Task: structure prediction
Amino acid sequence: MSKLTYLCPINQDYQHMLIPPRDGFGEGLVEAGKRDKKVVALCGDLVESVRMQPFATAFPDRYIEVGVAEQNMAGIAAGLSFTDHTPFMASYAVFTPGRNWDQIRVSICYSQANVKIVGAHAGISVGPDGATHQALEDIAITRVLPNLTVIVPTDSIEAKKATLALAGHRGPAYIRFGREKNPVVTTEKTPFIIGRALKILSGHDVTIIACGQMVARAIMAAEKLQKELSVGVINLHTIKPIDKAAIVEAAKQSGAIVTAEEHQINGGLGGAVAEVLAEEHPVPMIRIGVRDRFGESGEPNVLMDHYGLGVDDLITAVKQVNQRKKHAR
Result:
């Protein structure tokens, strides 16, 4: 067991407990449906894959199969929200928000419709499905939209908590997660609050700010480096509204930042953090993500390493940014 002192409850066996985050979403949606009869679900012909099937079985009168018509789905969801429903609309992230961005922008965000947009199968770890189904741009195209909350849960437990939180949250929101089994880092006791970053480790040399499955990899990197460097880890599950205070505090404490995301390096979590630091407290920074490339077919873990998203890549970035910090003094 690691000797590191964690700032919040985490699953000490996280590397061996692997569950797809979409499973947590499915469980959360059913629970939200039990709590509130106004919760409804819409899907684009992917009910089993996006884990809406349990909700459809439990509440058949509150489930709408739209079919392969993501733009129509956004319009229907917006309409339902204006009849005092809380719609969750789901598809693969390349289709929603990818294919129906215009309808999300106007019908949902501009209209401030209480719609929850669910983008499944995001990131490079979709694997064999290849570039057309690997959403690497969805954080960028959603966080730019006014009124839209953007959440990237790290694991199945956090995905369930985020789903329940969004069911009670008024206003448009987007939640994204991948397909593959991820390490379950959090526990039932780990706090989750929309808009508030989760501080996992404190470090005075470098802080890694991560989202999604990169949080587990950030912790692994910190554990491997603990004899050399003091590395902090922050789970920035809410990309928007971003927790500026947590980012600035980490920059002041450690003096160097590494961001990590399963997304294009431009416009995603790294870009959001860089914007905060540039205005509030500039420090040396390195962004880990997909570097302006489309994905390709392959095994998920192989692709993660191939695209520079591995634990070793994080370790290299931490060492590099720490050296930059030293030279800047």
